[in-house]
Amino acid sequence: MLAFALSASLAHACDHVSIDAPGLDLDVVDCEEGETAPPVASVVVVGDAAVVIDEDDDEQVDLDVDRGDHLLFQYGLQFLPEVPGHQLSARLIGEKDAYLGAELRYTPGSDFAGVGRLSAGFDVLGRGNWDLTLGLFLGSAGEWERSNADAVLMAAPVAGTEIGFGIETGRLFGKYRWLAGIGGGPVDDLLTENELTLGFKVTDDLHVFGQYLVLSPGELDNQSGLGIGARLRL
Q1: How far apart are CA 207 and CA 23, in angstroms?
Q2: Could you identify which of 66, 91, 142, 157 might form a hypothetical disulfide with 113, taking C-beta atoms 3.0 to 4.6 angstroms apart as the criterion?
Q3: Rounded Cα distance, 86 and 69, in Å
Q4: Rounded Cα–Cα distance for residues 101 and 119 (Å)
Q5: Domain 70-233 is classified in which CATH homologous superfamily?
Q6: 208: Cα separation from own chain's centroid
Q7: Which region, left, alpha or beta, applies to residue 34 given φ > 0 means left and ψ of -120 to 50 means alpha?
C-alpha cells in the first residue's frame, strides 16, 4: 500500500540509507513493525519501508513559467497627440504560448476613429520567462467623414504581421510589439505601430502597466504617446 505523510512528531528508531541525486536528496527509511519514520517534508511509505523526499530550496520551480491555458483581458488609456485613445483587448493563450486575440483602439472626437484586429500566433521559445512571438492579424481601420451621411467609413480588412519580444522576471514584465499591415496602401499604414510595455504584477491575476506607443497611420506618421492600463488574467 502506498501512503503519503507530512512532517509530524514521530519516533526515530529506524535505519536510514541516503541516496544523493542532482537537485534531490533521498533517504530510504527501513522501519520495523511498530516503529514510525522521522519527521520529514514528504514521506512515501511502501510496506515497512519509507522513501523520504527532500527538495533543495535553491531548486524551486517558478510556477509563473507554466501558466496553463488562460485568458488575458486588457484596458489601456493612451495619451495620443490629438485626443486620448482607449484600447480594449482579449487574448486566449494556450499550449506553448500559442494565442488567439482581438483588440480595438477607439479615439473619440478625432478624425481618426480607430483600428481593430483579429490575430493568431505562437511563441517560438515556448513556455518560459523569455518570449519571441510571431503572428498574423486581419485588421481594419476607420475615420470620421463628417460631410457624408455615414459618419464612419471603415476600410475592407487587410492582413498584417506581428512580432513581439518579451521577458517576465518575478513580478516585473516587459514586451515590445511591432505590428505592420502587409502592403503599401493607406489602410496598411493605419495598422502599423510600435508598442513598448512595462508592467508590474500586483497579484498573479491582476497586472498594471505603462506603455509607449508610436503610430504610423498616414498623416500621423511617427506620432507617439504614453499610456497606462491594467490587465486581468483568468
Answers
A1: 33
A2: 142
A3: 27
A4: 5
A5: monomeric porin ompg (2.40.160.40)
A6: 13
A7: left
State how far the Cα of 67 lies from the Cα of 98, in Å rounded to an integer: 12
Q: What is the pLDDT of residues 182-191, one digit of tens each?
A: 876 777 777 8
Q: Please, what's the b/e burial string for 13-37 (b: 16 or more CB within 10 A of its CB; e: otherwise)?
A: ebeeeeeeeeeeeebebebeeeebb
Q: Is the dihedral of CA 104, 177, 172, 102 positive or negative?
A: positive
Q: What is the pLDDT of residues 24-63, one digit of tens each?
A: 555 655 666 555 555 544 554 444 444 445 544 444 444 4
Long-range contacts of 16-24 (CB under 8 A, 24+ apart): 23/55, 23/56, 23/59, 24/53, 24/54, 24/55, 24/56
End-to-end CA distance of the chain: 39
**Residue 9's pLDDT is what?**
41
Residue 32 CA from chain centroid, whole number: 51
List every span in the chain annotated with CATH 2.40.160.40.
70-233
pTM (2 d.p.): 0.66
